[in-house]
Design a protein that fits this description.
heterotrimer; A alpha/beta (793); B alpha/beta (435); C alpha+beta (167); A: 793 residues; alpha/beta; 7-stranded mixed β-sheet; 5-stranded mixed β-sheet; 30% helix; globular; C: 167 residues; alpha+beta; Glutaredoxin; 2 domains; 7 helices; 4 strands; 45% helix; elongated; binds flavin mononucleotide; binds iron/sulfur cluster; binds FE2/S2 (inorganic) cluster
């Protein structure tokens, strides 16, 4: 819309016509106080804090509902306005418990801030305040009624934002109260949005309440360790006896790709870090068959010696490596480099939750959609999966696009997924019809029938730009077909949905027996060999302990083949990093009885229980690096917490390499010329000191020193070898998400690769093996059980 | 069954058919009923609105907005259907006039709704009665059925090719729902929370369509304007205040009742002659001239004509036509408290100043009346009210604040007499105040 | 909604089926439906809330939000005859409080109480639109005006007789 010019507090400002005055002022640095106004939610004009004086208007006007107009003259601060705001606060405080010293929101409470600003410090009332007991509405949500100022933000974010509608307003007048949908408790998605949006301490969370004061925490924005959306979560940490504890997760600065959103996992399911049964000491199986805690040195030496023995005696082909969907890109990359150059094997794989290789190959340089793109999309085609459960961040973005930008949503699914409520077109198809759907959309009229299908396709064909996003129902050739047909429409971008925080990174970093990082076939690893300073194809031949091995050129064993080999007694050793294949693939313990198993994990998982050496690993919240979400958004992972005893997987791999006699400098090029250091992020530093340190070094032409445990030492190598990751390092370090570059990927016959995709099928309240260790997720599922059983009856 | 009261000065326009059996459609037709609608079908929208403007009819709901002008704001072209909404929520303390209309002349409301519809090419009307008037719903439903049976409602009304439907319903107990936008929310099945304006109902109203909303008396007056002629009607009242009004006289009067008198009728005369004066030869203490929301007038302020402009000039409002008379024995603190108790009970709770303000005002007044107040409390009561005024989301906050400010201003001495632990000098303390 | 599963009488269920068709949107039928349901069942029980929510196609929470807004709607049973005495300004000026006190005494219940036999319940209410005929009270939907303690007794006696028994 055209710009209009108006005057605020004597300053001439311009903004597009139709902009709300409060927003126009904010954009120009003029802050107008507001309790009920919240960007992106429906307007209320209920709190009356935003009142301003507009010339020619008889009364004060609410800036939250007034749109700017040409020539408008506005005053936002004056004695009259201050008085109005002060009176409002006085009224609110009349019945407010003023229990700020014990309130979770104390120190970051908007009511407190406003009271401070407008000086409503004199109590005008002598009446006894009405006390009401705090109520627990769910494992997540607690409600303290007397603190509530009835801004209705929670009601709106739950309804309009989440499409859950679990909160309401009951009674009227001074008796008005926020009410949960099940009379005395909540049944909802437990996202905690209501808690974060509460300007006061009326809604508090089960994890955080009465734990700490806000100013006692440091706040570190990092990437959530759970699903494939890779939302930014800001962790509030506090020093404790054994490190830095996470006390809170939130999303208040809204600077992440997830915008306003976080789900229960991103917000509360960090609690696994503090579990009593968290591994903090390395374990080595003794002659009596028991796992016994030992020192790190002992465990590393033992494991390294065993690996070396097995490699030297039986060759790399007798060793298998299973990587993780939750470690950083650097760790995944390092793991494959370690496997190929130190262990001398291509027997490396990970739990594949979707077919990324087929996807990137099909894309062949066509644009991929970032998670950000969805919030402003004009039209979205969503096929398969259940985004609300498996990709809640994506579901939020899509709802936002529909709600705020009138986007058209096309949903095709074999289930009545919740997002159909936002859909302009919902097409219910059979479970096995996904391929037919692609064919139909591609023009094969015989593939599907019915008016709905026709309208669906007709609608899509009219779209001028479209984001196509699909679930793991599509693999191999089917993905190819889908991308091909999508490409016939103008301005199409694609996204492929996989599970877990860095499943995409695991795939991009080459945790495959046949693919190197960047999906380069192992048979064509020339540039890699050059970079690594090794020869190709010498893996098994040069069993020379003093040197790093060459790069094996034949595809190795995949996940299933490794276990088959183990069963046949052909797998001498198996290194499992942050993965639980024993539970996931239902592997019988007997299969591994002749294999030396090393596990790196947070807990004694089913896999770790069978291991001979178990290394206590750091979680994603306790390390730095980068991670890539399923949309190809690369983000900085910042170390937030610390747990005494644990080590990052990066460090464990490097030390294993060293114990095996490998050249650490070759594994991690930390001394190499041209390698740039980070600015302290690797050490978990935030701002201030660390940044100054880096700046000072640079100013003195000194190379910041990197340690071999510094993941950024290897990021340069990744950027050189994987063109898609040639993103702006500066932006990345500044905390901005960077989208992977479209890159041509030449995988021969990707469609013909063996289909090993096994979607995790997580729900809002599960998160693979890791999720089982979250008490919060567990208690939510427990709380929901009776409801679900009765419903089923 | 309450009936209209009469006085030699009464001018029966709206009440012309009261007591004549016009509840039945045949009788109504016999008494020139549905002639106005036929006439308006011929006049067409512009003709109707022209007449309405000429009649100088001003809304009887409280604000006194010129009705013809209100109708003219409805856009001619609209993508969404237009509606007529009749506000029969009558809940302002002191007001009981719409009830008489529904009870004695239901068809005049139906015919008025129809004409309003014709004036803006609406095809549907709603008549919303307050929940307490459930017995009137039966009367209205029967009348609507009769009109359908005669072909005055439904498809092709009066053979004109035009369709018009009317739905009647009641609320369920909420004063705030009388506020026009809250009424629309209620009619849409929601809590009676008012809407943000602009947009105004004439542009975006019921179900998002342009909507005429008028008080039931306003609507019932419409057919009479076409019956006697707009000019004739205008002549009855004063300048810019056409016609008659149903005044509800209540309180300390010999002959309380609802009287139809010309606009501009002298208030003093209304009290002493029409209402028969104060019983027991007592002195007049105060008059609330237009329902509980209007600032109180002192005896020396009542020699005024009862129209919107003159009462306004006297510092109060004509409001809904409820004239409440208080004799010398009334405790003004108790009266102020009872008034505030009402607003506290009826505040929808949406906005802070009204929700919290009415609550604290009631508490403070209760304490004052019971003798628990200190000096600064009187100023505080005024402070609270003054800080509500003009700051709330809808006019209910003003309706609570304005009379309160007037009570404190005009009866400050009496408020002070309650201080220092004395409590009400006139009354035993009501039990409620003691707990 | 099939009449087989309804908790309402067939007549009321049929009325509801029609009610939702009268308005441009179904939800408009909510408040009238709640009133009719309350008239038949006596109060808005959980079962009523559930069925109304289903008929309108909204959540039970939404129904409760609306119920709790309106003062005539109740979620607990009242007496067979619900006596509502107005004490607002006009009635107050003409003895409304005395009528209320009188009712408390003759019924033996406090404000919002229900008599032991369940015949009467008592409530002090805001203005009911009988200001010119004050003081006034409503028993269920019937108005009784120009009351005195004596005439109020007569009114109560009539209802007591209707309820089929003296006290
Ligand atoms: C709190 C409040 C309550 C109101 N109650 C009523 C009412 O019961 N009946 C009514 O006709 N107007 C009432 N009004 C006025 C309406 O908002 C509206 O102005 C009126 O129905 C317009 O009709 P009119 O132009 O015919 O007067 C109320 C206004 C407010 C602010
Ligand atoms: S002034 Fe505010 S709280 Fe009061 S009735 Fe209006 S909107 Fe509701
Ligand atoms: S922010 Fe404008 S009224 Fe609350």
């Amino acid at each position: 819309m055209a710009d209009v010019t108006f005057t605020v507090d004597g300053r001439k400002l311009t903004a597009p016509a139709g902009t709300l005055l409060i927003e126009a002022c904010r954009a120009h640095g003029i802050e107008i106080p507001a309790f009920c106004y919240y960007p992106g939610l429906s307007l209320q004009a209920a709190c009356r804090m935003c009142v301003v004086r507009i010339e020619k208007m008889p009364k004060l006007q609410t800036a939250c509902t007034t749109t700017v107009a040409e020539g408008m003259i506005v005053t936002t601060e004056s004695p009259e306005i201050a008085q109005a705001r002060k009176a409002t606060i006085e009224l609110l405080l009349g019945n407010h418990p003023l229990d700020c010293p014990v309130c979770d929101a104390g120190g970051e409470c908007e009511l407190q801030d406003m009271t401070f600003k407008y000086g409503a410090h004199e109590s005008k009332f002598v009446e006894i305040k009405q006390h009401r007991e705090e109520q627990q509405w769910s494992p997540v949500v607690f409600f303290d009624r007397p603190r509530c100022i009835l801004c209705y933000r929670c009601v709106r974010v739950c309804g309009e934002g989440m499409d859950v509608w679990a909160l309401g307003i009951q009674n009227r007048g001074a008796g008005s109260v926020i009410a949960p949908n099940k009379q005395d408790h909540l049944e909802c998605e437990e996202c905690g949005m209501c808690i974060d949006i509460c300007p006061v301490g009326a809604l508090t969370s089960g994890t955080y309440r009465y734990k700490t004061r806000p100013w006692e925490m440091s706040h570190i924005g990092t990437v959530c360790t759970h699903c494939g959306d890779g939302c930014k979560t800001t962790l509030g940490v506090r020093r404790s006896n054994d490190g830095m504890d996470i006390v809170r997760g939130d999303n208040r600065d809204k600077s992440g790709i997830n915008g306003d959103f976080l789900c229960i996992k991103g917000r509360y399911a960090f609690d696994f870090t503090e579990r009593d049964d968290r591994l903090t000491k390395p374990l080595v199986r003794q002659s009596d068959g028991q796992l016994k805690p030992v020192t790190w040195e002992e465990a590393i030496d033992f494991a390294g010696k065993k690996l070396r023995e097995i490699r030297d005696a039986r060759g790399g082909k007798a060793i298998g490596v299973i990587g993780s969907n939750r470690t950083t890109n650097e760790e995944a990359y390092l793991l494959q480099k370690f496997a190929r150059t130190v262990l001398g094997t291509n027997n490396i794989d990970h739990h594949r939750t979707t077919d990324y290789p087929a996807f990137v190959q099909a894309l062949a340089g066509k644009p991929e959609a970032s998670l950000r793109d969805f919030a402003t999309a004009k039209a979205v085609l969503l096929i398969g999966g259940d985004a609300t459960e498996q990709h809640p961040g994506l579901a939020w973005q899509i709802r936002t696009a529909v709600r705020l930008h009138g986007a058209r949503l096309y949903v095709a699914n074999h289930e009545l997924i919740k997002l159909r409520r936002q859909a302009t077109h919902f097409l219910e198809i059979g479970e096995n019809d996904y391929a037919s759907l692609a064919a139909y959309l591609g023009g094969d009229d015989a593939a599907l029938s019915g008016d709905k299908a026709t309208a669906f396709r007709e609608g899509l064909r009219k779209e001028e730009s479209l984001l196509v996003v699909f679930g793991a129902e599509y693999r191999g050739k089917a993905i190819e077909a889908l991308v091909k047909l999508g490409s016939t429409l103008p301005n199409v971008k694609f996204a492929c949905l996989g599970d877990h925080a860095n499943a995409r990174g695991a795939s991009d970093m080459g945790l495959y027996p046949d693919l190197l990082p960047g999906y380069v076939p192992v048979t064509a690893g020339g540039t890699f060999a050059a970079e690594y300073g090794v020869e190709i194809g010498l893996g098994d031949l040069k069993a020379d302990a003093s040197r790093t091995h060459g790069l094996p050129a034949q595809p190795g064993l995949d996940m299933i083949q490794m276990f088959d080999a183990a069963e046949r007694g052909e797998l001498g050793a198996l290194l499992v990093v942050g993965s639980n294949p024993v539970a996931r693939y239902g592997i019988d313990a007997a299969v591994l009885k002749n294999t030396f198993v090393i596990a790196q994990d947070l807990f004694l998982t089913e896999t770790a229980q069978l291991a001979d050496v178990v290394f206590p690993a750091a979680s994603l919240y306790e390390k730095s690096g980068t991670a890539t979400n399923t949309f190809g958004d690369v983000q900085l992972v910042k170390k937030a917490a610390d747990k005494a005893g644990v080590r990052t997987d990066f460090e464990i791999i490097v030390r294993l390499g060293a114990a095996m006699g490998a050249d650490v400098r070759q594994l991690v090029p930390f001394g190499k010329a041209g390698v740039r250091a980070d600015m302290g992020q690797a050490r978990g530093a935030q701002s201030g000191e660390a940044d100054r340190h880096g700046v000072w070094l640079a100013a003195h032409h000194l190379e910041p020193k990197l340690s071999p445990f510094d993941p950024f030492a290897i990021f340069d190598e990744i950027q050189r070898l994987v063109p898609a990751y040639d993103v702006s390092r500066l932006d990345l370090l500044a905390g901005n998400d960077q989208h992977v570059k479209p890159a041509l990927v030449q995988i021969t016959a990707a469609g013909a690769r063996r289909d090993l995709v096994l979607p995790t099928n997580d729900t809002l309240f599960t998160s693979g093996t890791l999720g089982r260790y979250s008490r919060m997720l567990g208690s939510v599922m427990e709380a929901r059980k009776p409801a679900e059983t009765t419903a089923a009856e | 069954m309450p009936v209209i009261s009469t006085h030699p000065d009464s001018v029966p326009v709206v009440s012309w058919r009261f007591g004549k059996g016009a509840v039945s459609i045949d009788k109504y037709i016999e008494l020139e009923g549905y002639q106005a609608a036929r006439k308006c079908l011929e006049l067409g929208p512009d003709g109707i609105i022209g007449e309405m403007k000429a009649s100088n009819l001003r809304g009887r709901g409280g604000a006194g907005f010129p009705t013809g002008m209100k109708w003219s704001f409805v856009p001619k072209q609209s993508a969404k259907p237009k509606y007529v909404l009749v506000n029969g929520d009558e809940s302002e303390p002191g007001t009981c006039k719409d009830r008489l209309i529904f009870e004695h002349d239901p068809h005049s409301v139906i015919e008025g709704t129809l004409i309003a519809g014709l004036s803006v090419q609406a095809r549907m009307g709603f008549i919303y009665l307050r929940g307490e008037y459930r017995y009137l719903l039966r009367i209205m439903e029967r009348a609507v059925d009769e009109a359908y049976a005669k072909g005055f409602l439904g498809k092709n009304i009066f053979g004109s090719g035009i369709d018009f439907d009317i739905v009647t319903q009641t609320g369920a107990g909420a004063y705030e729902v009388g506020e026009e936008s809250a009424l629309m929310e209620s009619l849409e099945g929601k809590r009676g929370i008012p809407r943000i304006r602009p947009p105004f109902p004439a542009v975006v109203g019921l179900y998002g369509g342009p909507t005429i909303i008028n008080n039931a008396e306003t609507i019932a007056t419409v057919p009479h304007i076409f019956r006697i002629g707009a000019a004739e009607y205008a002549k009855i009242g004063t300048e810019r205040n056409g016609g008659t009004r149903l005044f509800c006289l209540s309180g300390h009067l010999e002959r309380p009742g609802v009287y139809e008198l010309p606009m501009g009728y002298n208030l003093k005369k209304m009290i002493y002659e029409v209402g028969g004066g104060i019983p027991g030869g007592k002195k007049l203490k105060a008059v609330v001239p237009g329902g509980s929301s209007t600032p109180v007038l002192l005896p020396e302020e009542i020699d005024i004509g009862m129209d919107f402009d003159q009462v306004g000039k006297a510092g109060s409002m004509l409001g809904s036509g409820g004239v409440v008379v208080l004799d010398e024995d009334v405790c003004m603190v108790e009266f102020a408290l009872r008034t505030m108790k009402f607003y506290r009970h009826e505040s929808c709770g949406w906005c802070i100043p009204c929700r919290e303000g009415t609550d604290w005002l009631e508490k403070s007044l209760t304490r004052l009346h019971a003798g628990g107040a200190v000096d600064k409390d009187i100023d505080n009561i005024r402070y609270l009210a003054e800080n509500m005024l003009g700051r709330t989301f809808c006019p209910l906050g003003d309706a609570a604040a304005m009379p309160t400010i007037a009570f404190v201003k005009k009866f400050r001495k009496e408020f002070e007499d309650h201080l220092e632990g004395r409590g009400c000098p006139k009354h035993r303390v009501p039990e409620a105040a003691l707990v | 909604m099939s009449t087989a599963t309804t908790i309402f009488s067939p007549e009321l269920a049929a009325r509801f089926d029609k009610l939702v068709t009268l308005y441009p949107v179904k939800r408009s039928a909510l408040v009238p439906m709640l009133l009719y349901a309350q008239d038949e069942v006596g109060y808005l029980s959980d079962a009523v809330v559930a069925e109304v929510a289903e008929r309108i196609g909204i959540t039970e929470l939404d129904v409760r939000n609306v119920i709790s807004y309106y003062s005539l709607l109740r979620t607990k049973p009242a007496g067979k005859y619900h006596v509502q005495v107005c004490t607002n300004i006009c009635c107050m000026l003409r003895g409304g409080n005395e009528i209320l006190e009188h009712c408390k005494k003759s019924l033996g219940v406090a404000n919002k109480g229900v008599t032991a036999d369940g015949v009467f319940s008592l409530e002090e209410v805001e203005c009911i639109g009988a200001c010119s005929w004050a003081p006034a009270a409503q028993v269920n939907y019937d108005f009784h005006e120009n009351l005195t303690p004596e005439s109020m007794d007569k009114v109560l006696a009539e209802y007591r007789a209707k309820a089929g028994g003296g006290k």
